[in-house]
Amino acid sequence: MSAQQRVALWAAEPDLDDEINDVDIPLAIPSYPNADMYEDPNVQLDESALLATQAQIAQQAAFAQIPDVVKRFIVHFHQAVLDNNLPEITVAYESGWNRLTEKFYSKTEWPEAEIIAPLVNDDQIFLILYRELYYRHVYSRLQPNVDDRFHSYENSCELFNYLLNSDGPVTLSLPAQWLWDIIDEFIYQFQSFALFRSRPANKTDDELAMLASEGGGQAWSSYSVLNVLYSLIQKSRANEWLTARSEGKTEEEIEEVIGEYGTRPLYRQLGYFSIIGLLRVHVLLGDFTLALKVMERVGLGLSVGQKAPFTAPTAAHVSTAYHAGVCYLMLRRVTDAARVFTGCLNWVMRARQYHTRSYQYDQINKTADRMYALLSLCHTLAPTRLDDNVMNIVRERYGDQMTRMGRGEEGLGTFEEIFLYACPKFICANGPPYDDPNALALLLNPPTPASPSSPSAPKPTTSDPTHRHLRALTAHFLSLTHVPVLRSLLKLYTSLDARKLAGFLDAGVDEEEVLSWMMVMKNAGRCVGRVNIAAVADKDEEKGGATNGTPASGSGARGSLLDGEWMSISDLNYVIDENMIHIAESTVGRRYAGWFIRNSEHAARVLDSVRALPLPVATAAGGSRPQGRDSESKGEKNAKADGAPRTGGQKVAWGGVKAA
């Protein structure tokens, strides 16, 4: 059967069973050796042989329970991988696998790799890829147990060892979406295992024993995960490839730089996605500076002229913007965080219609919702003018919460609730001491001090890294609790005495305390930001961030992502002369230039397209066909005289009917 027929088979919308059963596929399933051994009473079996026979019988029973449509799908999938047929692999991966999952395995596991091995002639490479899908299904749809967590790590090691330690580049070809999902799922399973390991309470004896073993200490370690990502980047020379592209080198020069691995799309895309994966891993570990450092050659689409190296999946762009925005927020660079979130959300709104049928649509929407929530925190910490379309959605979803957060300490609970919902689940690089029972028991049952008020008593702390980051950000939020009240009062005056200002506030506030609050407000009105590209970034957001409808992701030609200068983000400036406060308010007007430019260009494009279309003409009664604008007016008169619109004839662009 040809490749075109197989693609059409999986792309069809009718019932999958009917489509596949109409296709005759030769399927040779080898029989298990010694399958009838247990029927002979004269045969003496030792215990190991008996167990092997029972395992074979169990495999036969499990194989018989697999639906025929699933067996044929696996055969098709395997053949497509052998042929390196990317269109067919893409359709089977994005459509066939998900449709069969919904129909047969929405609440249970797919068949294990050992069971379906006869269908693929025991092809170990395909079985590794199949296990990658199998464990991803377990993590996303079911609840993985401790065996699943360890086995998924072993399978990931086998996959990356095959890619990195083979003799030369492998001949495997996979679509970009699958490659991104491999990196993304690898990091997600690492995060899931770290969270599972960080909670020693309520663990069974078997789980404690596995975590205390030597393999348990090495499985999903931070070192092994970082080693895989850095090895993929180094093997593919992804950073050198991005640098060569930004320098405008020719394809021949780029091939000399990146070598035999970098010229293969498989390694090039894996290396590129590994850079984005490093951003995510460093964010989860709390190293926000290093997270932005690794993205310097990739960039965030804030500069004009940056083009995407290739058509990366939508989820890769959204993940990049989300984690980069979190880095800026945790580094107190609130304006940069707001700019990254706004640019990505604008692009998601424009591209929403193109990925509504994607199987990742729900995940993209969840990440976008988290960015809206974090954007409300950014606006609370540093009120600045942002894109109206995005801010309207933020106010619609989080308007009440933003009002409560603007009241100071009263909104602290709301601030914490939004942050815990929208932030990543941070993890610890090292887990509890499972190999030391005494230290583990001390961790589970810390000694209670004799007197809680004793100065020598240890203060209660939490080992949860998410709450540690929350405490750091809420401390910044609490330092700004008096800023909204002071801001509303200062807007009413051009000069004001500190004693009079203290009288407007709560009782018991003296001048010195008011002046200290004023200094806090002055500091809150300034932050470090990428001011040298702020104007360019706005223009880039208006143009869509990149060509071909994807956010730009080029090299950071305009400087490091960590570069920045002190900038004023407040429209209220004041000077304190002894105890007198002099206020100057600078109103920032709306930027109408971009709006007029965009709409003028749109009107010009519409006018050009209208001029290129044929005009509807009508034939006068008893005469020849008129031309030009007169024909249009006569046609309108004839149409009115007829009393009904025409229903026959050639249709024109706007849906009318051209007269015969």
TrEMBL record:
<dbReference type="GO" id="GO:0001732">
    <property type="term" value="P:formation of cytoplasmic translation initiation complex"/>
</dbReference>
<protein>
    <recommendedName>
        <fullName>Eukaryotic translation initiation factor 3 subunit L</fullName>
    </recommendedName>
</protein>
<comment type="similarity">
    <text>Belongs to the eIF-3 subunit L family.</text>
</comment>
<keyword id="KW-0963">Cytoplasm</keyword>
<dbReference type="GO" id="GO:0016282">
    <property type="term" value="C:eukaryotic 43S preinitiation complex"/>
</dbReference>
<feature type="region of interest" description="Disordered">
    <location>
        <begin position="619"/>
        <end position="660"/>
    </location>
</feature>
<keyword id="KW-0396">Initiation factor</keyword>
<feature type="compositionally biased region" description="Basic and acidic residues">
    <location>
        <begin position="627"/>
        <end position="640"/>
    </location>
</feature>
<comment type="function">
    <text>Component of the eukaryotic translation initiation factor 3 (eIF-3) complex, which is involved in protein synthesis of a specialized repertoire of mRNAs and, together with other initiation factors, stimulates binding of mRNA and methionyl-tRNAi to the 40S ribosome. The eIF-3 complex specifically targets and initiates translation of a subset of mRNAs involved in cell proliferation.</text>
</comment>
<dbReference type="InterPro" id="IPR019382">
    <property type="entry name" value="eIF3l"/>
</dbReference>
<feature type="compositionally biased region" description="Pro residues">
    <location>
        <begin position="446"/>
        <end position="458"/>
    </location>
</feature>
<dbReference type="GO" id="GO:0005852">
    <property type="term" value="C:eukaryotic translation initiation factor 3 complex"/>
</dbReference>
<comment type="subunit">
    <text>Component of the eukaryotic translation initiation factor 3 (eIF-3) complex.</text>
</comment>
<dbReference type="GO" id="GO:0003743">
    <property type="term" value="F:translation initiation factor activity"/>
</dbReference>
<keyword id="KW-0648">Protein biosynthesis</keyword>
<feature type="region of interest" description="Disordered">
    <location>
        <begin position="443"/>
        <end position="466"/>
    </location>
</feature>
<dbReference type="Pfam" id="PF10255">
    <property type="entry name" value="Paf67"/>
</dbReference>
<dbReference type="GO" id="GO:0033290">
    <property type="term" value="C:eukaryotic 48S preinitiation complex"/>
</dbReference>
